[in-house]
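User: Second chain of the day. Same drill as before.
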Amino acid sequence: MRRELTFVGVLVALAMIESADANGKLMPNVFAERITYSVPTQAAAPAPNTYVLDDSLPVGKIVDGGGGVPGFVERTVARLWVEGELKSETVVAEREIPAIPGSKRISSIGFDVPHKQLTLARTMTVESTAYTPDAGLGSRATFRTATGRRAEFGVIAVDPRVIPLNTLVFVEGYGLALACDTGGAIKGNKIDVCVTTNRTARIWGRRNVRIHVFKERITR
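Assistant: Same format as last time:
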């Protein structure tokens, strides 16, 4: 006789075999079953790589957007029972279902972009300073960045060997920015954020910040 039982998340195929010897004497009951079940993976879920712009968040704010799905291993085993005693168990199939990253929400305040969703390339901690659009030359100065853009809030100076020019970057505590400027003192893991006033620049001072570098670039 053969029967099949279904449980939530587990499929059990159960067969009971009855046989007789040459003299007609019944042999011991033998059960064979095949079970498929899921086992959570021990590896940590990957960090979210999708960032959604949210204009309701304060400037420079980043929050967890949720939505991630943990990974698991789906395993099928065959078991042989004799008179209620497990005699053997063999893994006959196994496949790994990878975890699906969730997302993060970031403040859209900063550099204005047409994108509503950005893809993360990497995160890093850098040393930051701040400068004003006139570069200390007074209100009549017309300051342009290394790429020809007008210096304004949402523009940062970087070392192009570390962060390519025209790359979108989210600076925690500052906002969404475009890496479109350079500076003589900006070498290695350093950035210079453009702010609107000298007072703001002084308040910013010199600090370590976490930045999120995206794959998207803007060259217009």
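The longest strand covers residues 117-131.

User: Great, on to the next one.
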